[in-house]
Specification:
By secondary structure, the chain is of the alpha/beta class. The protein contains eleven helices and 18 strands. It is 39% helix and 19% strand. The two termini are 35 Å apart.
Length: 368
C-alpha cells in the first residue's frame, strides 16, 4: 500500500541478503517510519510479543519466516534438527490469542517433518513462508472485492452521500502483508469511486486506530475522522453510521469472534440500532478446531504499562508520559469475544456467510 510516494508491504525478504527479513516497526508509527531487520529467532519472538508486527495475519506470516530462520541457525550453529522444532514452539508462546501464529507454525513443521537434509529444510521453509506471504495478499484482495459489494449497495441507496463506516482497532494493511482485512473493502470501494467516510476508533490503550488506521487512510486519501472509543454508540443512535466492519484475531468454527477489546461493545450498539456488523475473517484466522460452546477463546492479558503510559509527539520528539496514578492497579485485557448472534456476517476470501458453523463449513468444506 501507499506510504508517501512509495509502495510498501509489511514484511519482505531482503533481496541482497536472504538471511534477513525486513519489517516495518509499527511501534514508531505514525511519527517515525523505521524498517527493522529480523535475523535471529529471538528477533522474531520479540517482534511478535512487543508488537513490532501485529495483526493476526501478519503475526502468522512472521512466524512462518521464523521457522526458516531456525533452520538457518541449526545449520550455522551445528544444532540438531530438533532445535528447529523447539524454537518453533518457543515462537508460538509469543502471543496466545491470534490463531494464525499456531496455524503458520504447524504448516511449516508439517512441510519439513520427513526431511533429514538441513539444506532441504532451509529451502522448503523459505518457500512455504514466501508462499504464505503471497497467499495473504491474494486473500485480502478477495476480501476487499467481496466486502466492497456491501458498501456499494449502501451507496446506491444514499444517492451520492458518503457511506459512513465505523471500524475498530487496525485491520488495515499494517495488520497483514498488504491490503488488510476490515479495511480491504474500504480500499476497494474507494478505488472504485464510491464516496466513503470512515469513523476511526482510537482503540486505547495502544491507539492502533488513531495511530495506524488513520495513518493508512491518510496515505490513501480516504476521508476519515478519529473518535474516542466510546463515541460509536452515540453515532449509531443518531444515524451517523451505515455499517460496521472489524477484523478478527481468532474466529471459532461456530462464529464467535475474538478481536481488539471493545469490539463486543460496538457489536451490541450496532445490534441495538439495527446497523449491520460485519467481520472480515480470512480463513487463516478461523479456528476450525475450536467450538466456543465447548471451550473459550484464550484472551491475552498484556503488560499494565500499556495502560499506565501514553506516548505522542511533543516538540518534534516522541515522548511517553504517565497517564494513571502510580498507586492504582490496572487490568489490560487485549481482546474480547463477540458472540455470533450479534454478527451480520463474515467476509472471507471465498465469500460472505452467516457467522455459524453450518455456513462457515459450506464455504470451507475441506475443513469438515
Amino acid at each position: 500500500m501507499q506510504v508517501g510516494k512509495h509502495k510498501f508491504t509489511t514484511i519482505w525478504l531482503a533481496p541482497e541478503n536472504q538471511r534477513i527479513i525486513r519489517v516495518i516497526d509499527q511501534r514508531k508509527l505514525p511519527f517515525e517510519f523505521e524498517i527493522l531487520q529480523l535475523a535471529k529467532s529471538e528477533d522474531y519472538f520479540t517482534a511478535i510479543r512487543d508488537m513490532v508486527v501485529r495483526g493476526a495475519p501478519l503475526i502468522g506470516v512472521t512466524a512462518a519466516y521464523s521457522v526458516y530462520c531456525a533452520a538457518l541457525e541449526a545449520k550455522e550453529e551445528g544444532l540438531s534438527l530438533d532445535s528447529i522444532y523447539a524454537k518453533a514452539e518457543y515462537i508460538k508462546t509469543a502471543r496466545p490469542t491470534a490463531v494464525n501464529l499456531e496455524i503458520a507454525i504447524s504448516r511449516q513443521l508439517k512441510a519439513i517433518q520427513n526431511i533429514d537434509s538441513i539444506d532441504e529444510i532451509i529451502k522448503i521453509s523459505l518457500a512455504v513462508a514466501e508462499e504464505m506471504r503471497l497467499e495473504d495478499i491474494e486473500t485480502n484482495k478477495a476480501i476487499g472485492r467481496n466486502g466492497s459489494g456491501l458498501i456499494e449497495i449502501i451507496a446506491e441507496n444514499k444517492n451520492g452521500a458518503p457511506v459512513n463506516i465505523l471500524t475498530h482497532c487496525n485491520a488495515g494493511w499494517l495488520a497483514t502483508v498488504d491490503y488488510g482485512t476490515a479495511l480491504a473493502p474500504i480500499f476497494e470501494a474507494h478505488n472504485r469511486g464510491i464516496n466513503v467516510h470512515i469513523w476511526v476508533d482510537e482503540t486505547r490503550p495502544r491507539g492502533q486506530g488513531a495511530k495506524l488506521t488513520a495513518w493508512e487512510l491518510l496515505n490513501e486519501n480516504i476521508k476519515h475522522t478519529v473518535i474516542p472509543d466510546n463515541t460509536g454508540g452515540h453515532l449509531m443512535q443518531n444515524g451517523m453510521v451505515d455499517i460496521v466492519i472489524v477484523g478478527t484475531d481468532r474466529t471459532s468454527v461456530n462464529g464467535d469472534v475474538a478481536n481488539k477489546i471493545g469490539t463486543y461493545l460496538k457489536a451490541l450498539a450496532a445490534y441495538d440500532n439495527g446497523i449491520p456488523f460485519y467481520v472480515a475473517a480470512p480463513s487463516m484466522s478461523i479456528d476450525f478446531n475450536l467450538d466456543t460452546e465447548k471451550e473459550p477463546i484464550p484472551i491475552e492479558q498484556r503488560n499494565d504499562r500499556e495502560v499506565r503510559y501514553i506516548d505522542g509527539l511533543l516538540n518534534g520528539k516522541v515522548k511517553e508520559i504517565l497517564y494513571v496514578p502510580e498507586g492504582s492497579p490496572v487490568a489490560n485485557y487485549a481482546f474480547d469475544v463477540t458472540p455470533s448472534k450479534y454478527i451480520s456476517g463474515l467476509i472471507t476470501e471465498r465469500g460472505i456467510c452467516k457467522a455459524n458453523k453450518e455456513k462457515i463449513l459450506e464455504l470451507f468444506p475441506e475443513k469438515k
